[in-house]
Amino acid sequence: MNTKNDTEHTVSPSNKLSRFRNASCGVILLARCSIDVAKSVRFHVIRKDQDLSRHGCAYRRRERPKTCLKGNLIGILSEWSLLKRKRADIMTAAENVCYTLINVTNDSEPPSEVSLKTDLEKGEIKAKTEALKKVIIMILNGEKLPGLLMTIIRFVLPLQDHTIKKLLLVFWEIVPKTTPDGKLLQEMILVCDAYRKDLQHPNEFIRGSTLRFLCKLKESELLEPLMPAIRACLEHRHSYVRRNAVLAIYTIYRNFEHLIPDAPELIHDFLVNEKDASCKRNAFMMLIHADQDRALDYLSTCIDQVHTFGDILQLVIVELIYKVCHANPSERARFIRCIYNLLQSSSPAVKYEAAGTLVTLSSAPTAIKAAAQCYIDLIIKESDNNVKLIVLDRLIELKEHPTHERVLQDLVMDILRVLTTPDLEVRKKTLQLALDLVSSRNVEELVIVLKKEVIKTNNVTEHEDTDKYRQLLVRTLHSCSVRFPDMAANVIPVLMEFLSDTNEAAAADVLEFVREAIQRFDNLRPLIIEKMLEVFHAIKTVKIYRGALWILGEYCSTKEDIQSVMTEVRRSLGEIPIVENELKKEAGEVKPEEEVTAAPAPKLVTEMGTYVTQSALSTSRPSKKEEDRPPLRGFLMDGDFYVAASLATTLTKVALRYVALAEDKKRQNSFVAEAMLIMATVLHLGKSSLPKKPITDDDVDRISLCLKVLSECSPLMNDIFNKECRRSLSHMLAVRLEEEKLSQKKESEKRNVTVQADDPISFMQLTAKNEMTSKEDQFQLSLLAAMGNTQRKEAADPLASKLNKVTQLTGFSDPVYAEAYVHVNQYDIVLDVLVVNQTSDTLQNCTLELATLGDLKLVEKPSPLTLAPHDFANIKANVKVASTENGIIFGNIVYDVSGAASDRNCVVLSDIHIDIMDYIQPASCTDAEFRQMWAEFEWENKVTVNTNITDLNDYLLHILKSTNMKCLTPEKALSGICGFMAANLYARSIFGEDALANVSIEKPIHMGPDAPVNGHIRIRAKSQGMALSLGDKINLSQKKSIS
């Protein structure tokens, strides 16, 4: 026997239909009910691999679980999301419907009416059950079967089998109950008596199921005789029956108030005496929407005991308090204490909603601090990373308000407790939030915590995200030191240890920080030089070694430091001459023949995003164990002679500086000779066959130039090497700092609300509801967001912006005219199709048939409809989007002409092209991240510039506007009049896909001032669809510009 404790799959009614279609093939629509009934219930889905007779039919809906789900996304997030959906006024969503789904086998033959009648009359219980299922499916498919109605009433209705009773409720829901003229069928009187008996059935589950079914009845003649039995269910011993009775009374009161006019009073009395939490919650929710004054009266009597209530009732109380205070702000003082108490609730969902309500009701510093502290506690205690990210977003929203930001600054150390979370995305958001809130009062404590975190990353076992987390910490400390120079001295010694890290990215961030610090803070130069010399020998990557060489060569200004640099270089290079030393080491061993190989030419990417190709021809031979070699010699033996060019530049700088410092001519000559000897032996090694790859001509030229400079020691060269280089770095850092300040200023201007002296003063009592922009109902907005109806910022004229999205699907002379308004949400597309019958005939079974091309999926098939002559109707269709690429929706409209004997008529629709720009948003990244992604992404699309735009900047702006991408190249680098331009663009889709583009364009001056821009745009992405779609968009926009 089935009971209410059967194991079944439950889903929230707000979930997308496609999710169930993917889970189970052949699912059909069973029934509809208004959204308000479904808001407090969840629907059952019977999967294809489950036995329908074991679980019963999928009509039944079950209560939301009593306790909040915790610990994972399906838990607390589903709870919060579901509760938000309940917040808005029920009538605003009356036109929305909820669906019940069942599984249908597609391979079965439709039975005849005679065989079904035989099974229903004479069959066993199992045969009757199967026959009843087939009848339900046939009625759903459009069959009338009027002859079976009395058969079912006579032979099936009296049965007490629970499975049959559940199937019967489905049958009574979908079967036509009225005659064509709208009068109730006589047979339904017998059915009504059966309802009454089920409402008095001793099994509480049958009673509860029947009460839920009555919520969907729209015939008041059927409900009127049942009212005494429904009222009696309020006093049933079992809470399951009582809470369903409350839902039934609420639905009947809303639809047919004359049947139970005293419903609010009845439910108020029920609420006062009720002990069960779920029953109280349903009753209180009904009073909120039916009689808010009675709900307030009840709340006033028990406001001091709210903290002892169950979480489901507390959540509804939070909703009521918000609505009352939103409508009447003078009531805030009455309920603010209650909200404060709910911040201490044991339920995470209640704490989250109470904190959000407190922020909207009060802007007092104590209220903001309490709400922020509640959010922080939630982030730390909840284990699900998605919950942490959502609550972090709420904290970031609080920070955007200037007055709230000051309060949050005192909570920086509490926010840093979130760093105990191992998830990288959570840590990234936390560090960014802490950096935005840091001030001179708490920067020292922040730096101490970050230093401890950096040291922890060095002690833990290597993990995939450990290196990335260390990079985040280094960048945060870098930003702190730039904003608060006094902190740099405490940070640098700790970070310098990571120059010897095997993770090149983290070490590169440290090196960039050290370079900026040593240039800006003169007083820290001795400390940085000392620490650099300590770790110099332990550096393991060639890129970091080159950077360290440059810093030492640029900023060593004393004779002692210069001698130390030379000592470290000799130590890293080993015994010289290198060639003779290496040959001695190999003496006595068999020397295999040299192998000359042509390896693939490696491509390097410059700052401009263009390619530089290195020589690929190499002569290699086996060598001794490389771990025996000093680091610099190891780099050279591997054929990396770019570090040799950097070494030559460093030696030239320190040698010229030493000549200026040392008075003894002999010491001057000795130092210069040693530097020249090192360069010469490196050149000799590069020309030999010992390295894996020979030295390139560029490196030879650089080393030769340095040798020439040292041999001549001219004042001009001394000035270029020792002054101009540093001046260039200083200028670059100054420009970067100016750009950062400018971007921060723009951000602060966005957040600061400027009030002009002549701005009108708004009196809330005199303001029309549609003008109260600052008093928007947050619960209403959250409901719209959950339902996919979030209002985006449209153009100045919203009607004009909507008209831009209307696509004409058929011609004006077609018998059926159709046009579609394409509304794009984040992960789905809603097509609102207007269908107009332009003929004088009635069109029956008018069906919109759609299909998709690309990564789109049609969620449900639109239902057929009947159009009167010259009538019109709107048909809605949902399309699921899975990735960022262009998609096409195509199809036709088919219909039958009333009274015509011909075949079905068909009107082919124009294609609807889904624009990729609806999913792409501008984003930013560092130059290093751009280059790394450029090297990793395997799909490239090269687009040839073909336009009539004659100005380089105009063309770049046109591309940025057309593609929603952001230009990463600084504005100053693009300014000025020049015959060519190179710029890097970046964007990110809502699905997390990155898109890179490099614009390389020029203006052919020799063709005159009116010559159009030409060149190429290279697009790179991880997926092929993204690269191709973006290229198509650029090509399309270019064609538009030509026209």
Automatic annotation (TrEMBL):
User: Where's the Coatomer beta subunit C-terminal domain?
Assistant: 757-896
All copies of domain Clathrin/coatomer adaptor adaptin-like N-terminal, residue ranges: 115-617
Main subcellular location of this protein, as a coarse class? cytoplasm
Cellular component annotations (GO), alphabetically ordered: COPI vesicle coat; Golgi membrane
Q: Which UniProt keywords apply?
A: Cytoplasm, Cytoplasmic vesicle, ER-Golgi transport, Golgi apparatus, Membrane, Protein transport, Repeat, Transport
Subcellular location(s) of the protein: Cytoplasm; Golgi apparatus membrane; Cytoplasmic vesicle, COPI-coated vesicle membrane
GO BP of this protein: endoplasmic reticulum to Golgi vesicle-mediated transport; intra-Golgi vesicle-mediated transport; intracellular protein transport
List the membrane topology term(s): Peripheral membrane protein
The protein's name in its UniProt record? Coatomer subunit beta
- The scientific name of the source species is Cirrhinus molitorella
